Backbone:
């Protein structure tokens, strides 16, 4: 759980990780994956033509870029030495 969903470069991300399972999971590794995306939106106005053919137009621009896809292991349950370990 994070207090906010947007961050800037160099900012420390702190939060609480809660795992709530609705059914048993047989696995050995708990990891989180963080994805980062940047989004840009802007509007600009431009003029075309001259005289009576002069027109003012507005252009809306939107773009985004995925710049982070990072997985971090949190705990390796295989250290429990039990091949039938169920979380």
Residues:
């Amino acid at each position: 759980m994070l207090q906010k969903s947007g961050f800037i470069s160099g900012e420390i991300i702190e939060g609480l990780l809660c795992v709530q399972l609705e059914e048993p999971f047989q696995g050995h590794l708990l990891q989180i994956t963080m994805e980062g995306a940047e989004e840009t939106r802007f509007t600009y106005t431009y003029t075309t033509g001259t005289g009576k053919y002069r027109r003012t137009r507005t252009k809306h621009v939107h773009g985004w870029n995925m710049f982070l896809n990072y997985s971090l292991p949190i705990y390796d349950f295989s250290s429990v030495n039990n091949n039938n370990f169920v979380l």
Residues 37-70 form one domain. The chain is about 0% helix and 50% strand.
